[in-house]
């Protein structure tokens, strides 16, 4: 990660006529807003943590946190929910990042829960929904009171209803009908002991904003975001990575294709897209022209039902 | 200033809100805006087509694009505010999509609090109705700088100019009374897409912009030099490392105005003074910074400053007060009563407060009549309040700053957000009664 406080920050549009000061660009506005949110949490909570998956959204979150508190270190630790089916490149990236910034990493392991019988593998082999229990139990065990997530409202229709500060009860449950109204930039983080607040600093960002920001800030990503050859097989209309996680099954044949990932999640439910976009400029051009949403193109778990995301969020998913 | 490789990263951002009654076609308008600006992608459209077919509808119901929750789809209603995102080559948009249903007022207040523009929808057949007046009043109350009156369903009135002209005139007269600064009226058919993204072939008599064209070109933001600088301190950065043994920076987002290195500043509420010696704009040293940038300030003196303090130019410091008069929108089912002890959250500071009086409730639906000394303010009520707070607060009038003039009231027992508050007079109408035609007096 090439993070550390970055010095090139302005991409202000030229001054509009009649104004003494340049209009801030949309990336500058989104960045200022996200930094404001990080600092609010640092100022008001005792034990915040950043959910860090090694995916682009959490990488951008960490980059913003580094800028928000520079030249001091980020006053939060990281939490990774490891499904046991993660891409090795991403785990490698995670560990390098933690070391480079002297951060503390907590890991909640789905595999551990399966091994000791507290969770059972689903018949479809998808591990993403299994993350909820290890996540919520880790939050309770470590007494985290604010948990940053990289969720964006543009990702999914249930997320469009999510607050920036989202109060969760002692079971980590989300109740969309009982959310606090959020006005101006006055975030209310009050909570009872045992409750916590999920915080989404990237709420107002879109997939394209995230990529444009990564380009502007020259942020390093795990290589799987860029085109590379990989052995994949077809399942439910998606290209999945062949590996030791029970794929492919009998009757599923693998082939080598030029692909890349638009999202980084569990190997069992994250699909690759055919792509020859090897640089960030090419990736941005590809996304701008895409006729599919990020999740529509690559996430199996959202297709389980029309309200799949809402149902998981109600249970404590981020 | 560096040049970037991607042109689109330098576009501006417009936050806007919609308001409309149940059957005015608001969801259709939003769906149409998203669809015709090509912001709806194939898999989303496919999902809407499938859902529409499953319900036995012939054509895809664009309203389904915006109803995200199970209960909304089941009941065909919209709960609460949702945020939508779309972009054109000229601008990025954040839309606060607020439902026109039962909980309209607090949801519209929420959406309008961050909006620079509000689209108010009316049905061309019904014209200005009670709901329309309520929406205009909320927009005026929240001091939304730009208003679009979208006269919808023009196809059902034969695209007749006189129908549109009469509605636009009646609305503009009411808006002027409220002190609303600028109204742009547009005749549309959300269902058919007339004047939403594409100009209508049925209304040659209309020479103005389409809704999207107007959204793309309306000026955003204000000139930062119009307002005095306000810097609420969020967090004190003290690395205490070998590389930065003496670094002490005050982190925050500039709420209004411009700050420069060399400015003499006063810290409130203590009244201590110092001088800005450095502005760190997220890793880059700057001589000048302005709202809404998040920065870190360095001062000449090692004064005692912590979260909740306000740094402001000595020459333009606000007065502090322990007695607050404000207009409020009550947000929660639990009513607000005289004698209630609450918490008041203003910028980065939270203080104790007591409700001393509820002078009047405003009837938004009709003639803005005052009901004096109500026993309580219930959910969705708009009224005025007098508060006594536990320590002096630098509260600007909301008319001067939406950031430093706004606050929340919070229930100290369970943390519930109770009330949205705006310091000072509700409407600009008194001030602008004479000069309303000029549209100024809206300075924030």
TrEMBL record, chain A:
Gene3D superfamilies: HUPs (3.40.50.620)
Polar residues bias (residue ranges): 1-12
The keyword Endoplasmic reticulum is assigned to this record: no
Domain Phosphoadenosine phosphosulphate reductase: 48-271
Region Disordered: start-end pairs: 1-20, 299-318
Keywords: ATP-binding, Nucleotide-binding, Nucleotidyltransferase, Transferase
EC id: 2.7.7.4
Single GO term (MF): nucleotidyltransferase activity
Similarity comment: Belongs to the PAPS reductase family. CysD subfamily.
Protein name as it appears in the record: Sulfate adenylyltransferase subunit 2
Automatic annotation (TrEMBL), chain B:
PANTHER family xrefs: TRANSLATION FACTOR
Domain Tr-type G: 11-225
Keyword field: ATP-binding, GTP-binding, Nucleotide-binding, Nucleotidyltransferase, Transferase
InterPro entries: CysN_GTP-bd, CysN_II, CysN_NoDQ_III, G_TR_CS, GTP-eEF1A_C, P-loop_NTPase, SO4_adenylTrfase_lsu, T_Tr_GTP-bd_dom
EC annotation from Swiss-Prot or TrEMBL: 2.7.7.4
Protein name: sulfate adenylyltransferase
Highest taxon of source: Bacteria
Pfam family, one: GTP_EFTU
